[in-house]
Structure formats: C-alpha cells, structure tokens
TrEMBL record:
Keywords: Hydrolase, Metal-binding. Pfam families: M20_dimer, Peptidase_M20. Transmembrane segments: none annotated. It comes from Actinoplanes hulinensis. It comes from the Bacteria. Residues 170-268 form the Peptidase M20 dimerisation domain. This is Succinyl-diaminopimelate desuccinylase. InterPro entries: Bact_exopeptidase_dim_dom (IPR036264), Peptidase_M20 (IPR002933), Peptidase_M20_dimer (IPR011650), Peptidase_M20A (IPR050072), Succinyl-DAP_deSuclase_DapE (IPR010174). Its EC number is 3.5.1.18.
Length: 356
C-alpha cells in the first residue's frame, strides 16, 4: 500500500485527519497506521525517529532549555459501520475522528511542518490506549524507554472540544464485607443476619459529604458511591454474608495511599478490602510551558474528572494536560465526528504556542 500520508496531505491538518481516519486501526491492529506515521516522520530531516512495537516517537534535538511532549494514541474502538470517513458541511464523520485522530493529526502536522519550535518537542504516537493497560504503548515505553518521556510538560491531544482539561481524579474500588451466621428463618434468633449489618454501611454512604477541591483554578468534585451489593442464600435462610462494593473518586490533592486511608476511616469498624485503584494527577499548570500554553489557548482550564493517561505522566513527575479538537461526548459513538473548525483552531493554537 502506498503511504497516504504524503507531503501535500501532511501540510493540511484537516485533510490529514481524514487520511488517518481512513487507515483502520482498531486496538491491537495498529501496524499499518504506525508504518505510515513512522515513514512520514522519517522523511523529515529535523526529527530523530524511534519505534517500539507500534509506538512511534520522534523528537527535535535543538538544545532548548525545555522540552514538551505532544502525544496521541493511534488506536480506535471497533469500527461500527462508520468507515471510510465522510464529510457533511463542517463535520468529518468516522471511527476515531474525535477520539482521537483529529488530535493525532495536529501533532503529526506540527512534527512535519515546524522545524524550529521554541521548546524541544517529543512527538509520541502510541498504541492500544483503548484496551487494558498492559497493552498501552505509553505504559510499555515507560518501562522500556523512560527517556522518551522526559519533558517539562506533556499535552495529550485527547478530545476536549478545544478546552484545556488538566490533571485528573484518582479512583479506588473496595469491598466492605459483612459477616453473620446462617440459620433457618423459622429459628432466626439462632443466626446473625449479614444483610441487616449492611444497613450501617449504607447509612454512612448516605451521610457522606464529598469534598470539592480547587487546585490551580481547576475544581474537582469527589464522590463516594456504593456500586454493587450482594448477599443472600435462599428464601428460608438467614444470610451469613453480604458485600457492598464502593467506588471513591478523589481529587489529586490526596495521594493514592491517603485515599485508601480515607476509605478505611469512613468504614472504620468494618472489614474493607481495596480491590483496584489508580492515582490522580495534579493539574501542574504553574510550570512555564504550561502557563504559556494556557496563554496561547486563551481560556480558563477545567478539571478532568475521569481517569486518563495524563496520570501516567504525573506519576513520572511530568505535568500533563488534555487538549484536543474532538468532542469527548462523541467518543466511541457510531456517529462520531469532529468539527473542521476545531481542527483548524487547534493547529493555530499549537503554532501560537510553539512557533518562535
Ligand atoms: Zn482517546
């Protein structure tokens, strides 16, 4: 297959978005698109290019004091009868338009057309963001080539509809277990009902007042919820077991460990087991490249409430934010699309920020 990412395609981020969308790249099937991206980058004299698996890295080596990362995942969720792309008025429709080939197009367009940026830039095009973390290209690079990720700021071009979403909340899942003693319901006094014991757990959840925390102008709203409950043996048995699964979303001023301690305090006196957790990420907007980025965008940042790959950078001590042309509400939807105007705005903003 001839590479569709030709020089005349690369110079126009809108045309480039369509070309990227039309190379199907469902998670674990990113070889072809990674080949195309790698080939396009290798033809550019001012970049040094490396590849591991289907993750491609390109960087300038201009000796600048600071380095920034522009990153985007190459994979999409499964196609839903929405390829190849189509254009209706100002909208490009197709799988991956919003999440996130519109964003990938911006990074690739800048990589090729901006030989002399004001910071050194590392461009990362990575595989398998949409599936389990063990396949995630950023995760693999963190282990195998940690130097690729050294930077003063990372911008992930995930869909934010042209706003800046900084940091992200952490998450903890846990199970509160209640024990009782089985008995025939006809002789219930011989048993201890574990489901009744869950009443106090639910009352604590109902009475819980989640915090609202503002960091660097970004407001994070915490939440603690029961998400599943199970228990019961049979219609004539006093149950001896009950479990309440809870999920805490916590603001990034708490560490993961502090979030665990907080849950143990809330459910003091009960048996609690942490089943899964991931740290949040502070917005980190006080670093100089981040302040200049915000000035280029010209609007106030907002908090990211879900968990994103931003947290992987934060874990390495690199401030990171999301900024992309796609609409997050359209990600993974069959009518997924991206506005052509948002792509053009995004390219102009990144140029304002990175050009000298
Ligand atoms: Zn995405």
């Amino acid at each position: 297959m001839a590479n569709p990412l030709t020089p005349d395609v690369l110079v126009d981020p809108v045309v480039l978005t369509r070309a990227l969308v039309d190379v199907e790249s469902v998670s674990r099937d990113e070889k072809v698109i990674a080949d195309c991206v790698e080939d396009a980058l290798r033809k550019v004299g001012h970049l040094s290019v490396r590849r591991v698996g289907n993750t491609v890295m390109a960087r300038t080596k201009l000796g600048r004091d600071q380095r920034v990362i522009l990153a985007g995942h190459l994979d999409t969720v499964p196609v839903d009868d929405n390829l190849p792309s189509t254009v209706v008025d100002d909208l490009i429709y197709g799988c991956g338009t919003s999440d996130m080939k519109g964003g990938v197009a911006l990074a690739l367009h800048l990589a090729v057309t901006l030989p002399d940026p004001r910071y050194d830039v590392t461009y990362l095009f990575y595989e398998s963001e949409e599936i389990e973390s063990e396949h995630n290209g950023l995760n693999l690079v963190t282990g195998a080539h940690p130097k690729w990720l050294q930077a003063d700021l990372a911008v992930l071009l995930e869909p934010t509809y042209g706003t800046v979403e900084a940091g992200c909340q952490g998450t903890v899942s846990a199970q509160v277990s209640l024990r009782g003693r089985r008995a025939h319901t006809a002789r219930a006094w011989r048993g201890v009902n574990a489901i009744h014991a869950a009443g106090e757990v639910l009352r604590r959840l109902e009475a819980y007042h989640p915090r609202t925390v503002t960091i660097d102008g970004c407001t994070y709203r915490e939440g603690l919820n029961a998400v599943r409950i199970f228990g019961g043996v049979a219609g004539n048995v006093v149950p001896d077991e009950c479990g309440v699964e809870v999920n805490l979303r916590f603001a990034p001023d708490r560490s993961e460990k502090q979030a665990h301690e907080h849950l143990r305090e809330v459910f003091d006196g009960f048996q609690l087991e942490i089943t899964d957790s991931a740290p949040g990420a502070r917005p980190g907007l006080d670093a100089a490249p981040a302040r200049e980025f915000l000035a280029a965008v010209g609007i106030e940042p907002a908090a990211k409430l879900g968990w994103t790959d931003v947290a992987r950078f934060a874990a390495l001590g690199i401030p990171a934010l999301n900024y992309g042309p796609g609409d997050p509400a359209l990600a993974h939807a069959p009518d997924e699309h991206v506005e052509i105007g948002k792509i053009r705005d995004g390219a102009a903003t990144l140029y304002r920020w990175l050009a000298r």
